[in-house]
Amino acid sequence: ADSLRTLAAGVGLRIGTAVNMDELNVDTTYTGIVAGQFNTVTAENVMKWDAIEPSQGTHNYGPADQLVAFAKAHGQLVRGHTLLWHNQIPSWLTTGVTNGTIDNAALRDILHRHITDEVSHFRGKIWQWDVANEFFTDSNPSTINPNDFWISHLGAGVIADAFRWAHAADPHALLFYNDYNIAGEDGSNAKSDAVYAWVRQLRSQGVPIDGIGNQGHLDTQYGFPTLLTQDLQRYANLGLKVAITEADVRTFIETTDANQTPTDNLATFAQPYEYSQMLKACLAVRACISFTVWGAGDAGSWVPGTFMGEGYADIYDVNLKPKAAYTALQQDL
Ligand code: XIL
To answer: Is 186's pLDDT higher than 90?
Structure first.
């Protein structure tokens, strides 16, 4: 059967994966999958601030440049991830804020410079930037989190500024707001409603935001977000692009099991179904331009390290053999 990227090209969609730069060009099976199955890639970690500027003023673009070169060689477009987020920011920055050597005015300047430097470095080479990541609370009603590191120091307006700064540095990149549970993914839909109202306001103010990325980290124990298509379409109706940016479907495993075998048989049916439903939602919305999975194989997945007792989240198993979820995506394309 054809590769995912060949099938996706046939329906005008880009299909992608997050790429782990410790594996790329090291593990040949992994490298072959990234090159052969996907026509867009996202840096899983190497474009985050702590990787890019490990000490103040010293930049390490090497691994990210390698990914950009790999993508070019393989006809892939790059999603840049991510410029403004509360996680994976450098310790020199958080330490400086804590000990008072970086006041709020200085923090704002440092952020402006970071966004300008990084976006300029990759100017012309990034298809979509996740400018801002994970700012809304999971509560009902949902709001921009006042306790977020950036918001507590610089105020909620800093998010719009980040979009302006990124746009100034690369006017052709598509600029995205990225978050989880922002399309049909909880009972109340409160978070989706809040992001929708916020982005509508930004658009009306002329802030250069082009798209909404719905991460798509699902869990078989919570079932499928049935309003996904509807919520993606609602963003699209504002003139925005949408994307599924970090799809995976985790389930319970024995923590000691290196094979990540699901403890519940239902997972073997629920997982391909949920991947399939996510892809179908993207295919149903014309403005949905890419569908990205958050890692190819279970051995490299972030899930076991983050969610106690869960794993088996990816479309390839720990030996990089395609799972039923892979076949489900292939059949939908
Ligand atoms: C994760 C990576 O997969 C891990 O390797 C890293 O240790 C932590 O970050 N939402 C995001 C991603 O937007 O950047 C996160 O990636 C997963 C959750």
So the answer is: no
Does the pLDDT value for residue 185 go beyond 80?
no
Nearest C-alpha neighbor of 247 from the set 276, 222, 269 = 276
Note whether ipTM > 0.85 here. Answer: yes
Is the CB of residue 309 less than 8 Å from the CB of residue 253? yes
Q: How many residues does the chain have?
A: 333
Instruction: Quickly list H helices, 155-302.
Output: 157-169, 190-204, 228-236, 266-284
Atom of ligand 1 at shortest range from CA of 85: 13
CA distance 324 to 20: 23
Q: What is the CA angle 122-124-126, rounded to 5?
A: 65
- Ligand 1 contact via 50 beta carbon (within 6 Å): no
The contacts of residue 12 (CB under 8 Å, 6+ apart) are none
Backbone angles phi, psi at 210, to 5 degrees: -110, -20
Q: Could you give the CA distance from residue 63 to residue 251 in angstroms, rounded to a whole number?
A: 31
Alpha-helix residue ranges (DSSP H) falling in 170-302: 190-204, 228-236, 266-284
CA dist 311 to 33, 44, 247, 323, Å?
20, 17, 14, 14
Cβ(45) – ligand 1 distance below 6 Å: yes
Task: Ligand 1 pocket test: pick from 185, 246, 298 the residue with the most ligand atoms within 8 Å of its Cβ.
Answer: 246
Q: What is the mean pLDDT of residues 24-43?
A: 97
Q: Is the pLDDT of residue 264 over 80?
A: yes
Task: In whole angstroms, give the CA distance from residue 160 to residue 167.
Answer: 11
Classify domain 4-332 at the CATH class level.
alpha beta
The residue written with tokens 């331009």 in the block is: 289
302 CB within 6 A, ligand 1: yes
Give the whole-angstrom CA distance, residue 199 versus residue 97.
29
For the chain, what are the domain ranges? 4-332
| Helix, strand, coil tally for the chain in percent (to 5) | 40, 20, 40
pLDDT, residue 224, reads 83
Q: If you ran DSSP here, which 8-state letter would residue 316 be given?
A: B
